[in-house]
Structures are given as structure tokens and as C-alpha cells.
Amino acid sequence: MTTPEPPVRPTDAETADRLRGAPFEPIGRFADASNATLLVRLTDRDPRTHEDLAADLGRDPALDDVDPVDLAVYKPRRGAAPLWDFPAGTLHQREVAAYEISAALGWDLVPVTVLVDDGPFGVGSLQRFVPHDPTHHYFHLLDHGDEDVIDQLRAMVVLDAVIDNADRKGGHVLLEHPVTTGSTGGADAGDAGDAADAEPLLSGRIQLVDHGVSFNVEDKLRTVGWHFAGEPVPEVLRADVVRLGQAVVGGPLGERLAGLLAPEEVAVLLDRIARVAELTRFPEPSGRHPFPWPML
Ligand SMILES: Nc1ncnc2c1ncn2[C@@H]1O[C@H](COP(=O)(O)OP(=O)(O)O)[C@@H](O)[C@H]1O
Ligand SMILES: [Mg+2]
Questions:
Q1: Is residue 129 within 6 Å of ligand 1 at its C-beta?
Q2: What is the pLDDT of residues 88-112, one digit of tens each?
């Protein structure tokens, strides 16, 4: 008897192509969002409208009725609340730029995000939906994540320093389903009783969302991620940041960033990349507002 293969996540390139080409329909709005952030369903695989689905089900469709690969998060430019410190109408471009940086670093921390120009509310960003349990946020993962999860949080701190994320809340850190539970917290392998009592640690892929207020020309790093302050920055992360700098200068990545950010923002990004590549220790909170509010 053969066991069925677990579902394989499509590659980023496949997902990006699909997001760019597929028609989509809004099915909900995130209540905690500060902008018009919409949950949408890609209708290329199943062209039924929301109304058709409701008619077939005999009730309003719930989230569980939709395959998560058919879901995405759409942030139309015109739904973004104006901010005093960011140029109007650019937040969706910063979302895409953050994905580009994460992808170029090879860290797979930001879900695929593309620009769309013909969404139901016009130009905006469209991001792969990440199925997750909202109780598994940053603060929960610090205590309950396995070593690999904690390493991904370290990479998050470095990514945020590079993109100068001005709003890394705990709830913008998602642990993608399916969550596999690995080793047990601090249990002695030789002691079955302890191991049975110990809570299993969470493992899986961290995915980060909400990067609309990044890449300012002024340093605005505002994050919950100060827990690693003073620890050495892993060499492998610094080496990736050095490579990122080389990729931004002159390559196709630089061209794509030039279409998303202002020239002075790309120049400042290069400065930041150079500074972060030199960081031997994780930074301490600094500046006037180092913590986001609310924290979650
Ligand atoms: N790609 C995604 N996958 C799953 N949930 C998401 C995704 N992007 C955002 N969310 C959910 O929507 C909420 C609002 O999104 P966020 O990016 O914070 O919007 P805003 O820019 O309006 O603040 C997030 O806190 C998260 O719960
Ligand atoms: Mg938000």
C-alpha cells in the first residue's frame, strides 16, 4: 500500500505567475487591518462566483470551504490610509519590494507578493495567503518554537533591519500550516515520563506579512524583535546580506526595485545593506519609537 504524498507547495515562480494572471474576487476584509486589506479568491481553478458557491452549498461559504491555495491578500492602492511619513500611494509597492528582498536573500520569509494593475479595486499588491493559527504569533513562538523556528526569527530581525520595517508587530509573524510538532521542550530523551509531559515544540515555516511601511529614507525600525539584542549575528545570515548588496547593484533585482521604490530609497537601502552586513551583534532598541503599538 502506498501512502499519499503530502501536498507540495507550488514554487514561488508558479505562484507569482498565477497571482499575476488569475482573475480574483474579494470574499472578505481583515477586521484588524489598518487599510482596506481584502481576502480574495482566485477564480481560475473554479470559476464559480461567491454567490454560485453559496447557492451550491446552501449557505454562506466559510474559509474552510475554499482551498487555501486559491486564496490571496489584496491591498488596493486606493484603500491605503494616507500616512504623514510615507509618499502617498506607494504602500503596495513596498509590500512587493519586501518580498523581492526576502526572495533574493534566499530566506523564504515573505510570501510571494506581486503587483496587479487590474484588480477589482484597481492597482495593488497581491500576496499568497498563508494558512496559519493566529495564536502562534511571534511572542508565542519565542517560547514554543523549535530551534529552527527561532533561527527563522533571527533571520526576520536581520530582514527587518535591511528593509527598515517601521511596523513589525507580533501578529505579522505567521507559522504556516500544516504545523508539524517536532522535539519536546527540554525533555531528557532518556526519561519517557518527562517527554510525555513536555509540550511539543512548534516547527514549520515562518511567513511574515505587512511590509507597507518599510524602506523609508529615514531610519524607522520599529519592531517587537529585540529579544536577540547583543547576541552574535550568525555568519551565514551576514554572508547572505553581502550577496544581496551585490545583487541589488546593477542586476535585474536592482531594476525591479527601481520600479518599486524612489531612487533615494534604493540608495539608502544599499547603505543599510552595507551596515547590516557589518553587524556582528543583534541591535539594541534605539531611536524614539523602537516598539510598535499595539505590539500584536
Ligand atoms: N498573506 C497573508 N496570509 C494570511 N493572512 C494574512 C496575510 N496577510 C495579512 N494577513 C492577515 O491580515 C491581517 C491584516 O493584514 P496586514 O498586512 O496587517 O494589513 P494592513 O496593511 O491593513 O495593516 C494580518 O494581521 C493577518 O492576520
Ligand atoms: Mg497591519
A1: yes
A2: 999 999 999 999 999 999 999 999 9
| pLDDT value, residue 180 | 54
Q: In this structure, what is the dihedral angle of CA atoms 239, 111, 137, 149, given to the nearest 10 degrees?
A: -40
Residue 9's pLDDT is what? 77
204 pocket-lining for ligand 1 (C-beta < 6 Å): no
- State the pairing for strand pair 173-175/122-128: unpaired
Residue to mutate (ligand 1; options 209, 293, 296; most atoms within 8 A of CB): 209
The continuous run of DSSP H or E covering 236 comes out as: helix 235-248
Counting ligands in written order, the one closest to the CA of 213 is 1
Contacts of 40 (CB under 8 A, 6+ apart): 24, 25, 26, 27, 71, 72, 73, 74, 119, 126
| Residue to mutate (ligand 1; options 37, 41, 112, 133; most atoms within 8 A of CB) | 37
Phi first, then psi, for residue 148 (nearest 5°) are -65, -40
Using pLDDT thresholds of 50, 70 and 90, give the confidence band for residue 188.
very low
Question: If we measure between CA atoms, which residue out of 264, 273, 276, 155 comes closest to residue 206?
Answer: 155
Q: Is 111 in the pocket of ligand 1 (CB under 6 A)?
A: yes
Q: What tens digit of pLDDT does each residue of 12-46 get? A: 999 999 999 999 999 988 888 888 999 999 999 99
pLDDT, one tens digit per residue, over 207-225 is 999 999 999 999 999 999 9
Spatial separation of the C-alpha atoms in residues 36 and 30, rounded to whole Å: 8
C-alpha dist (Å) from residue 145 to 153, 155, 160, 192, 231: 10, 14, 20, 21, 18
